[in-house]
Amino acid sequence: MSTIQFSSLANRLRRTEIRELLKLTRMPGTISFGGGLPDPSIFPYEPVKKASIRAVEEFGRQSLQYSPTEGEPFFCEQVAAFMNRQGEKVRPNEIFSVASSQQGLDLLAKIFVDPGSAVIVERPSYVGAIQSFRQFGADLHGVAMDNDGIIPDRLKDKIDDLIHRGNRPRFIYLIPDFQNPSGINLSLKRRKQVLAIAAAYDLIVVEDSPYRELRFEGDLIPSLRSLDPDGRVIQMKTLSKFFSPGFRIGWITAPPEVLEKLIMAKQGTDLCTSAFTSIMTACLFQDGSIERQIEISKQLYAKKAKAMLDALDRYMPDADGLSWSHPEGGMFLWLRLPECIDTTEMLYDAVEKKVAYVIGSCFYSDGSGRNEIRLNYSYPTVEEIDRGIRSLAEVVESRIHEEVTSAHRS
Ligand SMILES: Cc1ncc(COP(=O)(O)O)c(C=O)c1O
Fold first, then answer.
1. Integer CA distances (angstroms), 187 to 149, 196, 224, in order
2. Pairing state between β 204-208 and 171-174
3. Residue 380 per-residue DSSP state
4. By alpha-carbon position, which residue is closest to atom 16 of ligand 1?
């Protein structure tokens, strides 16, 4: 038998730790705070049924056909109208449809990353982006965040250092709204500072923003794209979090020369996004179903976030170094445990108690964050949130107790 010879890209492929750990958490009866899934109980079945019939009856000749790689014109028109209603100035011919944001991340890596290319990410950052960029051999550099998002001085130092070492970053990847995993928002002041730094060094900024529409508290902060005077922001949007991940549809706006490369890269990947899904999506934007769904999701997730915060207050022990974020939107809450706790080891105890989370270290390009965890509140029910947090608090309490006891012994 001949030896199978894989490409260097294939040889870089790794199963993500998060997927392996999520398998562990799918045991029957386990309450999972692990995924990043919308609540299926609010999926808009009737509007989707209506839109699918319309996509066949009214648009059959288009929806069952290939569509342009840039995107189905009706989709681009409706998405642009939606984005304009959201305060974004965009024309239909600036919208490029993708099979959801994950495809967008893959295409970005395809056009920007050579093995060893420097890419700047937040610390922590979205595990799927880390994975996509790494597959193409990116040399990822994390920049620390605080409660206002990425720290501008640190960003500047990092860029200076990389340029000094002859590895000018290809782009800065940010999730400015309800960041996955931390739930943090990049403040308005910081958005302007980040854009000024990007302009000073003439760098591209990628604004990946799937959670922006899910704000249930506080004021909307202008997007990086809308604040950018130079057209250096690539903005990535998806239907996954506020409507349906099953649609696998999203869109990108980018500077024209970047868009052209992305379109060519997509041709080699899948020729075009599904015309049928694009047309259904356009129908659902046009009849207001998507904006109604955003309202429904926001109301429900506000209730669930509150349930999680209440449960954390009620059940978590008083301990130095134990704290959690207070999200104003999105799907996640970030929990920091005392430094002595290893959340990967703790996961086995948690799974035994039938509760699961995602370990923090998955989200760091350098493996740190061992004492942190991400908790999702959009998927479990309010009752499960209460029960799950109570079990998690028991696990945390006994871990802290064990660590303190063994520290006294040694
Ligand atoms: C920040 C971020 N980007 C992109 C994605 C991918 O989303 P999708 O491919 O479903 O659009 C996710 C999903 O969790 C995410 O959190």
1. 7, 14, 11
2. parallel
3. S
4. 180
Average pLDDT, the chain: 94
Query: Considering the domain 9-38+292-404, what is its CATH architecture?
Result: Alpha-Beta Complex (3.90)
Sign of the alpha-carbon torsion through 232, 230, 240, 354: positive
Per residue in 143-155, pLDDT (tens digit) is 999 999 999 999 9
Domain coordinates in residue numbering, the chain:
9-38+292-404, 45-290
Please give the distance, rounded to the nearest whole angstrom, from the Cα atom of residue 107 to the centre of ligand 1. 14
Q: Separation of 250 CA from ligand 1 center, angstroms?
A: 10
Q: Is the CB of 180 under 6 A from ligand 1?
A: yes
Q: What is the pLDDT of residues 20-49, one digit of tens each?
A: 666 766 778 899 999 899 999 999 999 999
Q: Is 338 in the pocket of ligand 1 (CB under 6 A)?
A: no
What's the confidence (pLDDT) of residue 14?
74
Assess whether the C-beta atom of 297 lies below 6 angstroms from ligand 1. no
Domain 45-290 fold:
Aspartate Aminotransferase; domain 2 (3.40.640)
CA 104–ligand 1 middle distance (angstroms): 10
Q: Is 128 in the pocket of ligand 1 (CB under 6 A)?
A: yes
pLDDT tops 90 at residue 1 = no
Q: Among 180, 207, 270, which is best to mutate for testing ligand 1, by the most ligand atoms less than 8 A from CB?
A: 180
pLDDT of amino acid 410:
66
Per-residue pLDDT at 85 exceeds 80: yes
Per-residue pLDDT reduced to its tens digit, 170-224: 999 999 999 999 999 999 999 999 999 999 999 999 999 999 999 999 999 999 9
Query: For the chain, how big is the Rg over CA atoms in Å?
Result: 22
For residues 49-69, average pLDDT: 97
Tokens representing 91? 């024309």
Rounded CA separation 57/255 (Å): 36
Ligand 1 centre to CA of 11 (Å) is: 24
Is the minimum distance from the CB of 175 to ligand 1 under 6 angstroms?
Answer: yes
Q: What is the pLDDT of residues 360-387, one digit of tens each?
A: 998 987 878 999 999 999 999 999 999 9
CA 168 – CA 127 distance, rounded (Å): 23
- Residue 7 and residue 10: Cα distance in Å, rounded? 5
Structure tokens at 153: 């001085």
